[in-house]
Amino acid sequence: MTILLFLIILSVLVIVHELGHFVVAKRLGVKVEEFGVGFPPRAKKLFRWKDTDFTLNWLPFGGFVRMEEEGERKPFVLLAGVLANFALAWLLFSIMLMHGIESGGSFVQHGFFAGIWHGLLTTGKITWLTITSIFSSEVKDVVGPVGLVSIVGMAKSLGLSYILYFAALISVNLAIINLIPIPALDGGRLLIVIVERLRKRRLSKELFNKLNLVSFALLIILMVLITVRDIAHLV
Questions:
Q1: Helix residue ranges per DSSP H, 49-111
Q2: How far is Cα 119 from Cα 109, in angstroms, rounded to an integer?
Q3: Domain span at residue 6?
Q4: 195 falls in which pLDDT band (50, 70, 90)?
Q5: pLDDT of residue 116
Q6: Which of these, 125, 110, 119, lies nearest to 164 by C-alpha position?
Q7: pLDDT per position as a tens digit, 133-192
Q8: Residue 81: pLDDT above 60?
Q9: How many structural domains does the chain have?
Q10: What's the first-to-final CA gap in the chain, in angstroms?
Q11: Which end of the chain is more exposed for a tag (fewer CB within 10 A), N or C?
Q12: What share of the chain is helix, strand, coil (3-state, %, to 5)?
């Protein structure tokens, strides 16, 4: 049950991220070929809306947006997913504070407008703490999927407010991680766009694809190593 809850939380966060890309791409007139729930292979085409196929895929977590190459080079499209995750974190923190949560030995609960305001402040505070921790943490402090599942288990045992807090925290982390200038991430693609504009010349498609492939492979290797370490800590 805990693993299922973790997958649901992760899927919602990733789908909201991709929805940000999708909405802004559509607004800017970029052709979006597919919005996928889950990762391929494709299980079923759900429907088609405004020239976009909405699909359900076999790997039951996350999602993706497949758009024309021009969309991958628009800064606002690239940043939209990150902004969507920050907005979701704000919403979740606000709901958490309106629902009420134990903090510093006392019960904290706000009304609607106060909850929204303090939710924004909490999002800003968590964002700053996350950024500063990136530069001060060691690799051994990084938690992988297995570690996150155990944290979800603890949050579930404490109640709804703690589940909302955990989801908001991960949403902030997902936004910040995606800003890291690695080609497989939004931040890396944004850096490539900036470099191309400074050079007034685009990278070749072959080089662009190689950079994406290598950086994605390195991310997968890093995730596998962190997961193995998390499992070793449980044994």
A1: 75-99
A2: 11
A3: 2-234
A4: confident
A5: 96
A6: 119
A7: 776 655 555 555 666 777 777 888 888 999 999 999 999 989 998 998 888 789 988 988
A8: yes
A9: 1
A10: 21
A11: C
A12: 70, 15, 15
